[in-house]
Amino acid sequence: MRLSHTIIVVFFATLLTTLLSSPAVAQQHKWVEMVKTDWHRMNHWPKPFTLADRQALRAPFAIMIQNGWERQNTLGSYLFDPETHQILNVGKRQLHWIITQAPQSRRQVFVEEGATLDVTAARVDSVEQMIAEMTPNGKLWPVQQTHRGPVGVAAGVIDTIYRKYDSTIMDPRLSTDSGGVTGGM
Q1: How far apart are CA 124 and CA 118, in angstroms?
Q2: Domain boundaries, the chain
Q3: Potential cystine with 74: which of 47, 58, 110, 162 (Cβ 3.0-4.6 Å)?
């Protein structure tokens, strides 16, 4: 039994000496480094991958937040005069809110595209002129055109809906029948 262990040790020592003295030592060294790297990866899993997983998980939420702010900061077609394409007073109030009250990193103005390029250009120009008037320090907030409309509808439409709903409500009346109503016990 002792002899077989000695033979095995001598065999591996000879093999190791042969391998180390051959020109393939660099390749073997690379292989050993790859084994070490794989061992460390397997023993540290999942720590190296959690950051990438978290970023991949949060990416859709970041996109949804950006889209929400875009819709919030969009000046829709109903905020512009249909003839001159100049921004209306209610649009000016919305624009003022965007450039003064929205978080600093979200102060970007979006203008809904018109039916033609000329209409869109007139709307953007009107908004840029109004921003220049509203900001005394001359800071121009970015104005971009978008194909998405803003959230909501024009106040006139909502007003019409509520007025029609209110016209269908019956006038309140007290019952003439006093049957069954008695004093306390």
Answers
A1: 10
A2: 64-166
A3: 110
